[in-house]
Amino acid sequence: MPERFAIYYAPSATSHLWERAAAWLGRDSSDGKLLNGPLAGIDRDRLLNLTQSANRYGFHATLKAPMALVDGAGEADLRAAITAFASEHAPLDLGKPRLASLDGFLALLVDDNEALQDFAAHVVERFDIFRAPMTAKDRAARAGRHLSARQTELLDAYGYPYVFDEFRFHMTLTDRLADADRVEIMRAAKTWFNPVLEEPLLLDRLALYHEPDAGKPFVRLADFKLGHSA
User: Fold this and answer.
1) Strand ranges (DSSP E) for 41-190?
2) Cα 82–chain centre separation
3) Which has the least CB within 10 A, 17, 117, 118, 121?
4) More confident site: 228 or 60
5) What would the pLDDT profile of 158-192 be if each residue is shown by its tens digit?
6) Is the Cα torsion angle 51, 57, 60, 66 positive or negative in sign?
7) Which pLDDT band, with edges at 50, 70 and 90, does 144 fall under?
8) Within a 13 Å sphere around the CA of 222, how many CA atoms are in the beta-carbon half?
9) CA dist 221 to 20, 58, 69, 211, 212, Å?
10) Torsion of CA 109, 50, 206, 98, to 10 degrees
């Protein structure tokens, strides 16, 4: 399977939120550092077991989902396009994030924001020219997740079902939790994250993430500050 790239939002890798999230997930995708030891009263092995997928993808909010690049396009082309796009858009104030359960996953959410919805839609549209067509295997894997008719339509058009009217900004902190784990993990997350949840979230950058091979951890390659001239 070819390498994949994704365009995400992630806070600065020196921010308190990033540091807390990397420690929670057990891996800092900006430098590859693994973080050990218990956290907020939860044994590290147990926490890693509950965050396997979130750990692999790295802390982020999806804007353009992971994609193999179309023939003829390379990483340098994608970087140049992100640089240009970022220069055309100002940062967005998302308000204070909050911990919540989203379809069984623990995540950081923000209030509904029309400007954010428009921005996310622009990212999807602008960078779709870089996306290689889905393989039959990839489509079957995504289509098998109980998608609605609208989500299936978006999957076929853009390679990802949660875009445009189906988009909801979220920064995932766990895999899908069993009922038996949900209360305990939410309590631990509140203990760990509450010190940084009073800080408003500023969408001030796009982050380019890279999956070098199928199933490998995603790496945060580069940040592109919004409002900066190309």
Assistant:
1) 61-67, 92-93, 98-102, 105-109, 170-172
2) 16
3) 118
4) 60
5) 999 999 999 999 999 999 999 999 999 999 999 99
6) negative
7) confident
8) 11
9) 20, 12, 16, 10, 11
10) 20
